[in-house]
Each structure stands twice: as C-alpha cells, then as structure tokens.
TrEMBL record:
It comes from Lentzea atacamensis. Keywords: Membrane, Signal, Transmembrane, Transmembrane helix. This is Secreted protein. The chain crosses the membrane at residues 134-155, 162-181. The keyword Signal applies. Residues 1-24 form the signal peptide. It comes from the Bacteria. The keyword Transmembrane helix applies. The lineage of its organism: Bacteria, Bacillati, Actinomycetota, Actinomycetes, Pseudonocardiales.
Length: 446
C-alpha cells in the first residue's frame, strides 16, 4: 500500500507541474488602437488604450500637432443598451499628449465619439479556447481522480484504486495532449478583423459561423464638397449600401491624398460621421480640379486604392510646402528599384502613423497633370529596431533619423511628383521633389 501511495503522490506532482506550465499560455492578446483624425482644423491622433478589465476604464490619449488650435473636445463611449460615458479633454496650445478616461460596462462593439467624429472599436471578452478548456479540464479531472485513488489506497482497498488511477492517466493524457498541441493551433480570427463584430461572437468567438468566404466586393467612392469640407461617400460595389466595415490600416481608417492643380499635397485622415460617410476639411483650397486617392482596408476585402477627382471653388493661390531636407537619390530606369534618402539633420524624428517616414508618389505627369497620372503610391520608411527603444514606439518617442530612406520601383518612365513626410516636434514636415525616371534600355517611350 505504501508503494501505491508513493506512486500516486508522484503522479500528483506531475499533474500540478503540468498544470503550472500550461497556465503560462493563457494570456489574452490585445493592444492599443491608434487612429489619425482630421477633425475640422485639427490633425489629431486618437489612441484608445487596451482595455484591461470589464467593467472598467478606457484610457484615451489625444495627440495634437503643431498648428492645432487649443480648445476643448468631448469624448463619449457608447454602445447599444449600455450606459454612455462622457468626459472632456482640454487641448492646450502646446502640441503633445492630452488624456481622458471613459468607462465601459461590457464586452462587445463600442463607439468612441470625438466631438462629431466616431471611431468604432471592440472591447474584447476574456474567453478560454477549447484546447485551454481541455487542458485545464483534464488536469482538474486527474487531480480529483487522484484524490479518490488515494482514499481507496489509504483505506486498504488498492484494487479499487486502480479504476480512478486509470481514469487519472486518461485525463492526464488529454490535458498533456491539448497543452502540447495548443501552440500549433492557429488562433481564431478576432471579431472585427474578418467577421463583423457582434455581442454574440465577441463573447463566444469560437462559435461556428456559416460564413466560409469573408471576401467582400470593391468600394465605390463618390466625393463632394460642402463648404470647405470634402465629403466622401463609400458604397458597396455589389449592393450599393453604405460601407461601414473599414479597418484601422496604418493608424487610420482612410489615408486621403489630395493633390491640387498646382501640385500641393494634402495628406488627410477623414473622420467618420455616419455609416459610409467620411469628412475632411480643406483649408483655403486652391481653385480647380483636385486629384483624390483614398487608401482603405475593408474587412475581408483587403487594401484598396480608390481614385477620383473633385472640382473646388476656392482661392487661386497655391499653398507651397516649406519643408526642407537634403536629398540623396539613386535613380534607376523604370521597373528597377530606386532609392531616395532624406536627411533632416538631427536624430529627433518621431514616428507618424506607425512609420519613420512616408513618401507619396504621383506620376508620370502628362498634359492633364496629377488628375490623369496613372501611378499613385504610398511608400513607407520603417522604424529601425533600436536597442533600448520599444518595438512599436508612439509619437512621444523622438529619437530617430536623421536619415529617412525609401526604396520604390517606378514602373513607368517620366516625371513624377514626390512628397516626403516626417514628424518632428509634433509637426508634420512635407518636403516636395520632382523625380525624372528614364526608360529601360532597349524600350522606347511612346
């Protein structure tokens, strides 16, 4: 009997050890949401911090940039059937971070209103996966069966102890198998990435869904002007219904590029005002036909670039860019990668939209100007890994540069308009340039 008790105690140690090692895999994934917003006369970055517990607070940081007027904005968290939470955030004259706190009382789809702008976001539920349940269920069952077997052994019935011992071995096998296989099982897509988020699928993300193909048709873009505001109407290419399933892509719902007839660039991030409706203000716009490109990421539809144009009745004067940098270029013929490196003098650049720098490319230019340019591109300069720095730094970190390199293969020969954008001292600096791309050898231009 002593030998039986010793074996059972060793088995108990194995169960507890396996359970302790498995508990390290139970952490829930999540992160902050960064959304750039062109809100009237302000260019803001709204950061919705990860929700740690429900019910509980949601910390929101509003980052202002140089030229943003001071004032007060209202943050409101709301969801269907939930209590509304509102707070005021005072934006000072000095650009930087301004904080506010709202509260949520349940997991599910929520909406953060920043004045008239609305930002959908998801409050996740802490839900164990089926293989986590199998792991812990197996270990708990093994522990219970082990205690039953010990009782039989202590009271002198070792023969009866064999039955719960066999069950214990089976339960350990189930728990260990689930623990070993769980790292290789791909996680289920969180509601909001491929599947429209609802209260049901957020609280039970492992439920079976009849949807096998999450792909969705392209989006139609119809621009219009309302005063100085450029209004974008997004509709589904199949049903014609408003498109309200845009994902945060490179820290924005829409990366809107507007190029005036004189070649002035505006890189804006329209606010969502209603399902399928977005708006951005064009301050003192230049008169004439402006070229428009909107880069979006639709749930299940991938990244799309929508092109259009808009006639604007405004002032006749163009707004020149005053950003300056030393440019070093290695321009190759069309179809081969060219390198453009901008040097800004100091190692004090901040990440903007999650990147060290952005380069907008429009061309080759013909008689119609940017409106008829066949190539539009948005090129990134990635944040280099730096010892002692976070992997995903926000705008509070000013420790990068001075060189901002870009590599891009211009597909056609001709003259291109290029704009390089970086952030320094919470100011978005835009440096314009013109690049001439030669034709590949042996290829004649038409």
């Amino acid at each position: 009997m002593k030998r039986t008790v010793a074996i059972l105690l060793l088995a108990l140690g194995a169960v507890l050890g396996a359970a302790a090692s498995a508990s390290a895999d139970g952490a829930q994934a999540g992160g902050d949401i960064h959304v750039a917003q062109t809100l009237g006369g302000r260019d803001l970055t709204v950061i919705i911090r990860r929700v740690a517990e429900v019910p509980g607070p949601v910390h929101v940081d509003v980052v202002t940039h140089a030229g943003s007027p001071p004032g007060e904005i209202t943050l409101t968290a709301r969801a269907a059937g939930a209590a509304t939470s509102t707070t005021k955030v005072v934006l000072g004259a000095v650009p930087g971070f301004h904080s506010g706190v709202v509260h949520v009382d349940r997991p599910g789809p929520w909406e953060l209103a920043v004045d008239e702008a609305t930002i959908p976001f998801v409050v996740p539920a802490l839900v164990s996966s089926p293989w986590e349940n199998a792991t812990y269920g197996g270990f708990i069952a093994a522990g219970v069966l082990l205690l039953v077997a010990l009782l039989f052994a202590v009271f002198g019935k070792p023969g009866l102890a064999l039955v719960p011992t066999a069950g214990m071995v089976a339960a350990i096998a189930v728990g260990v198998t689930a623990a070993l296989l769980s790292p290789s099982i791909p996680p289920v897509a969180a509601p909001g990435t491929q599947l429209d988020p609802t209260y049901d699928n957020i609280n039970d993300p492992y439920r079976r869904t009849p949807v096998a193909d999450f792909s969705r048709p392209p989006v139609n873009l119809v621009p219009s002007m309302k005063g100085e505001d450029l209004v974008l109407s997004l509709t589904d290419g199949s049903s014609g219904r408003p498109v309200d399933d845009l994902l945060v892509h490179d820290s924005a719902f829409i990366h809107l590029v507007v190029v005036s007839p004189a070649g002035t660039l505006r890189h804006l991030h329209p606010i969502r005002t209603a399902p399928g409706k977005y708006r951005a203000r064009l301050h003192a716009p230049e008169q004439g036909t402006h070229a428009i490109a909107a880069e979006i990421a639709r749930r299940g539809g991938g990244v799309q670039l929508l092109r259009s144009s808009i006639d604007v009745s405004g002032t006749s004067a163009a707004r020149p860019h005053d950003g300056k940098a030393d440019l070093a270029t290695e321009i190759r013929e069309a179809g081969r990668p060219s390198t453009i490196k901008a040097r800004f003098g100091e190692r004090d650049l901040q990440p903007w939209l999650g990147m060290l720098g952005h380069m907008i490319v429009v061309g080759p230019l013909s008689g119609g100007g940017p409106v008829n340019a066949p190539i539009w591109a948005h090129v990134h300069s990635m944040i280099p890994p730096t010892p002692g720095m976070p992997d995903q730094p926000d705008e509070s970190v000013a420790a990068y540069g001075p060189d901002v390199p870009f590599t891009y293969s211009f597909p056609l020969p001709g003259k291109y308009l290029v704009w390089i954008q970086i952030e320094r001292d919470y100011e978005i600096v835009t440096v314009p340039a013109v690049v001439d791309i030669p034709a590949a050898k042996g290829v004649s231009e038409k």
